From TrEMBL:
The chain holds residues 85 to 426 of 579 of the full protein. Cu cation B binds at H239, H243, H273. There is a cross-link at C91-H108 (2'-(S-cysteinyl)-histidine (Cys-His)). Residues 78-284 form the Tyrosinase copper-binding domain. Its cofactor is Cu(2+). Residues 293-340 form the Polyphenol oxidase central domain. Binds 2 copper ions per subunit. Cu cation A binds at H87, H108, H117. One of its GO terms (molecular function) is catechol oxidase activity. Disulfide bonds join C11-C26, C25-C88. Keywords: Copper, Disulfide bond, Metal-binding, Oxidoreductase, Thioether bond. GO terms for biological process: pigment biosynthetic process. This is Polyphenol oxidase. Belongs to the tyrosinase family.
């Protein structure tokens, strides 16, 4: 059977190793849960731009939206910090699996990884659009798979902006080129071309060369299964690598980006995920055996989110397989690793 949406009334404290101030990341409870229906596809899709290519006007608009989100009342589930807590709740064991009090619900390390994050970013984007009254607003994607995108996008480093975050690795500020194979120590090469070439090979290996759904999306995770059956290729590399590379190594858990519970507090998170899910779209588009599962235990797996109108909604994996049906798409950019043989 599919994993069911969590019971919010049974949410508990998250498991976090060495957190200094204990946190409660449970979402507010609501008396009504609506089964979410995708709104009709608009005539004009939201078009997510590549973060390194945006205009100043766009940056100003995005900043405005995030400032408004940060200024919402404490108890508004759309508030910036409450949105960040969504990740903590789903990823640090605040929920049990419905019907199995001895099993925690964990959305990483399984086939729930891509769908959960896509839905999360979807509502986050719609909330921002609603706050600035712009139904075409779309989040920027961190185009880390193209040479000019392989660094923290400049818009996030302006200290006076609402999308700045100080808990980031001070040695990885732009124009430092990221290493998609980073494992805790900075490479000694000063040759950016070498690093970029290695990154492109990594992209090929993690996306194009992966031909089976369980290896790309992660292993099956059904009701009653122990959590974390196995992660897909992209979840590990480059996704988790970029999290760790971005977080501040001087914090106890690599806060913010380097750990589950606080990563949603850094606006980089949503742009990282906007590109990670774009890789999912690219992967299914490659064809051959690269297909989404048709198993109803995946398609009917469900999550809860608050939508842009503060309504608690239940969404299903099967409704997030095509972003155009969800009302958005991505700016067209070249994919420089399609044919980079490892
Ligand atoms: Cu839930 Cu980027 O992780």
């Amino acid at each position: 059977a599919p994993i069911q949406a969590p019971d919010l009334s049974k949410c508990g404290p998250p498991n976090i190793d060495s957190v200094i101030i204990p946190i409660n990341c449970c979402p507010p409870i609501s008396s009504t849960i609506v089964d979410y229906k995708l709104p009709p596809v608009p005539n004009k899709l939201r078009v997510r731009p590549a973060a390194h290519l945006v205009t100043d006007d766009y940056v100003a608009k995005y900043n405005k939206a995030v400032s408004l989100m940060k200024a919402l009342p404490e108890d508004d589930p759309r508030r910036f910090m409450k949105q960040a807590h969504v990740h903590c709740a789903y990823c640090n064991g605040a929920f049990d699996q419905v019907g199995y009090t001895d099993l925690e619900l964990q959305v990483h390390f399984s086939w729930l990884f891509f769908p959960l994050h896509r839905w999360y970013v979807y509502f986050y984007e719609r909330i921002l659009g609603k706050l600035i009254d712009d139904p075409t607003f779309a989040l920027p994607f961190w185009n880390f798979d193209t040479p000019l995108g392989m660094q923290i996008p400049a818009m996030f480093t302006d200290k006076n902006s609402s999308i700045y975050n100080k808990l980031r690795n001070p040695n990885h500020q732009p124009p430092t080129v990221m290493d998609l194979n980073w494992s805790g120590t900075d490479s000694t090469t000063t040759n950016n071309d070498e690093l970029i070439a290695a990154n492109l090979k990594t992209m090929y290996r993690q996306v194009v060369a992966v031909k089976k759904a369980n290896l790309f999306l992660g292993e099956a995770y059904r009701a009653g299964d122990a959590s974390s059956p196995g992660q897909g290729s992209v979840e590990g590399v480059p996704h988790t690598v970029i999290h760790k590379w971005s977080g501040d190594p001087n914090q106890p858990n690599g806060e913010d980006m380097g750990n589950f519970y606080p990563s949603g507090r850094d606006s980089l998170f949503y742009s990282l995920h906007a590109n990670v899910e774009k890789l999912w779209t690219i992967w299914t588009g490659l064809g051959g055996t690269r297909k989404n599962p048709t198993d109803t235990d995946w398609l009917d797996a469900a999550f809860l989110f608050y939508d842009e109108n503060k309504q608690l909604v239940r969404v299903k994996v099967g409704d997030c397989l095509d972003e155009k049906k969800m009302g958005y798409t991505f700016q067209e950019v070249a994919i420089p690793w399609h044919e980079t043989l490892p």
